[in-house]
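User
Here is a favour to ask of a fellow structure person. I am asking you to supply a protein in sequence and C-alpha cell form. Please set it down just below, with no commentary around it:

Assistant
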Amino acid sequence: MKTLTFWQQLGLGIKTYIQAFGFAVNNGLWIYFIYPIVLSVIMFYGSFSLASILSDAIEQWIRGYIQFDESEGWLSFLSSTLHFFLTIALKIIFFFVYSTFSKYIILILMSPIMALLSERTEEILTGKKYPFHFAQFLKDVLRGVAIAMRNMVIEFSIIFACLFITWIPIIGWLCPILLLIISYYYYGFSMIDYCNERKKLSISNSIHYIRKNKGLAIGNGFVFSFLFSLPFVGVILAPILASVAASIAVIELDKNQYVES
C-alpha cells in the first residue's frame, strides 16, 4: 500500500482542521464546545493574575540579592534600566512557560470530552459502533491524562535543557525553532493517541506509530497551538477541532498506508 511522506502527513494534519470545523457543525457536535467555554473563562482570568503574582514574587526575591541604586546619576539610571528589563523579562518568561503549561492543563482537563469526541467522530465516519462502557471510558480518560503528563514532562525537560545551550552561537539560536517543533509534535501526539487506544495499541506501540507518522502529529499540533494562541476563543476551538481533525486524519492515513503495530 502507498506510504505517505513526511510532508504529505504534515499537510494531512493541517488540512483536516478545515474538514473538522464543517464536520462538527454538520453532525451536531457543537454541544462539545460548552465544556471548553466554561473552562476558557476560568483559564482567561486565572492566567494573567497567576503570571503576574509569580513574576512579582520572583522579582522581589531577586531584588533581595541585587541592590538597585536609588541615588541620582548614571548608576541610578543603570539600576532603573536593569529593574525595567528584569520586570519585563520575567513576565515574558512566565507567560511563555504558562502558555506551554496551560496547553497541557487543557489537554488533561479536556481528556474526558476529547475521548468521547474522538470516538464519536470515528463512529460517524466509519459506522463502527463503540458501546459505552464506563470502565473502558475511565480507562481512556486515564490514559489520555497519563499521555499528556508524560509529554509535558518530556517537553519541559527539553525546554530546561535548551536554556543551557541558548547562549551558544548558531546552535543556541536554533533552540526556539526546535522547541516549537517539539511542542507541535507532542500536542498532536496526545490527539492521535485517542485513536490508537481504540485500535487497542499499547502505549509503547502508540509511541511507535506516532513516531513513524511524526509529520501528522506535527501538523495537527501546529494548528492546535495556533488556535490556542487566539484570545479567549482559542481555548474553546483548539482542543475540540484538534480531536476531530486527528480522528479524520488517522482514518485517512490508515487507508493510504500500512503501519506496523
Summary: The CA atoms of residues 198 and 233 lie 29 Å apart. The chain has a mean pLDDT of 80. The radius of gyration is 21 Å. Residues 6-45+110-256 form one domain.
